[in-house]
Every structure is written in C-alpha cells, then in structure tokens.
Task: structure prediction
Amino acid sequence: MIRKRGFGPSFVFNYICHMNSNNDSWLYFNTADTDGNTIAIKASSLYAVDSTSPTAVTLRFKQNGVTSGTVTDFATVALAVTSGKSQEVIDEVWHVATKKLGVFQVIADDANGDYIDNVTACGAITVNV
Amino acid sequence: MKQVKLNEGLHPTTAVNAFSATTDSLLFIRATDIDAGLITLAFAEPGDPDDTRDEVLLASEKTLAGCKAAIKSLCEAVSSNRADSVKLSGDGVVINNVSGYPVSAAIDEVTTLVLAADGNDVVIPWATAAKVGLRYRARVISYTPAVAEDAEADPPVAAADGYFNEDVFVYTDGVVTSAVNTTGISFAANDLLEVFAVDDVFAVRVEVFSSSNPTGIVLENTGATDEAGYTFTAS
Result:
C-alpha cells in the first residue's frame, strides 16, 4: 500500500492540542481602587468554585502540582451573584476557565462594571502567600 | 509550559539581577501599588508552598486602568505561543503598557545630591539599606556654570530654564553596594564636565533610569547650600 505523505487530520488535531496546552488563560478580578485588589490569576490553578450562600460564590486557587495532602489555597476570590444563580455562575466560571476562550478573561471588574453573567460584584480578594 | 525571563536590562560591572522560571510556577499577576504603578508577578517559591518569589515591574501608567492594561499585556506575553520562552524585561524588550523594572520608583527616596567642589566626585546618596543591590544607570543631562566668563571661547547657549543641555556626559552603570551616603551614584570630575571646571558649576541635573524605563527620573537642585554641596531632590 502506498501511503501519501503530508499533514493528515490527526496531525492537525495533535498540533492544535499542543498549541493550546501551551496557552494559559488568565482570570481577571478587580474589587476596589486599592492596592492588591486588581489581579490576574492563572485559570489552570482554579480547583474549586464554592457556593457559600444564595448570593455568594468563592473561587479557590491552588498551586499546580499539589496532588495530595491538605490543599492550601494561595488565593481566593469572592463573588456576589444574583440570588438563586449560584449554579449558573459556577458553570460559567468553569466554562471560561477551561474552554480557553481567550488569554485574558474578565470575571468581575468593579471599576468598569464588567462581569460574567449573573455576577453582580467582586468581593474580597485574598492572597495567602 | 515555557520559560519566563526577567532581567533589569542594565550592564553593571558586577552580577546581573536576572530571574527565570516556568510559566507553571507563575501563580498570579497583581497590582500591589496602583499609585506607583507596581505590578507584582508572584512565582511559586521552590520548596515552600506557603511563599512566593515576587518580581516587580512598573506599569507605564500609574493608574488603575494603567495597571490593568499592564497586567493584561503581561498575561498575553506569558501565554503567547510563539516561542519556548518569553522575556518580560531587559534590553530590547517591549511589553505594551509596561516600563520594566521600577528603578524610578526605587530612587524616589533619594533626597539629596551632593556636588563636591574641586574635582571630587558628584554623589547621589541612597537613603536606605533596602536599595543595596539595586542596579542603575545614570547620566548628567544638564548643568549651569556659576561664572559665565569661565566658559570657553564658544560656550553653549543656555536653554530658557537656565540650564545648558549638553549631551557630553558619559553614562555610568553600577550597583548600590551600601546604604552609606558616600557610596551612591558617583561621577568622576572628568566625566562630569568637559567645558567647565567642577567648582564653577552650581546646578546639575542627573537622570537615572533603566534601559527598559527610558523616561527615567530627573534629579535637580533645590538650592545651593555651600561650595561643597548642593541639595537635589527627585523631580
């Protein structure tokens, strides 16, 4: 059998996957015009999104490679959400964080009133390192 | 994953302050001082999950919007697919909205510049021990003569502000080695002036900057004290 040389569909697929794996997305938050409250966190470090009340969601970030033992958050970000829409916000956060929609994704920006759907404000940004 | 490189971009005669890490270890990029335009890149500290190695760069615009723009540009640079490594500061590096290492902010604490008499070095003292290790580049950018008739036969013409702006002075690179005032930036007398003797000069402007922060910061005098020294402040 004679095999044609060239770039087949599998090569293109693998090439695209390789390119994307090297392309981290960043999640942007701003809660006030004060020092430390404007931050971009690498999306791949997001490991939990927790509904802490009907109107609040907390995003938790950990260092990559921590796979056992007690997970220590290096950062948490609280979001105020429309009452009853916690699940929608959780789904949207994961969608934005994992689908590589772009390098720089605004999740909640109080200064510019820019939010993903059903987020009404950015709450406390806590960095633990 | 790729390599992230940072370098102050100066050419000190001693060790170069450089740092590199993988993109995996870069945890977040945060505006830590909006008024000063300070953007902190926090990397995982090797062997210590509760600590970070922080590298600070300067936003071009010292506002919240400027800090956001700088953060976005850094995110895009770090996540670019174009190479196996990315350099965020140093010679020839241009990152939109980012001015490189914050040398100008670091010398905001410089309060005096002493113009010594009779051929001694001009010295910019450094205020705190925290500046030890800081790399810098500096040059004298203008001066005024105390006695006009001491000028050479074809003297330069003073600008409207009274300063002569002569591009005749060599750059000096170096590293702050001590918090003691007399070991700050210094210019040898021969480097300082080509036209006038040092003791004829009563005002000097000095520019301090990094190559990635080309606007720098200008120090100039606020009033002569005596023949041996003049007081300068950051402007």
Remarks:
- Residues 26 and 42 of chain A are 4 Å apart (CA to CA).
- The domain at 24-127 of chain A is CATH 2.30.29 (PH-domain like).
- Chain A touches chain B at residues 19, 22-26, 28, 30, 33-42, 45, 61, 63-66, 72, 74-75, 103-104, 109, 111, 127-129 (CB under 8 Å).
- The first strand of chain A starts at residue 26 and ends at 30.
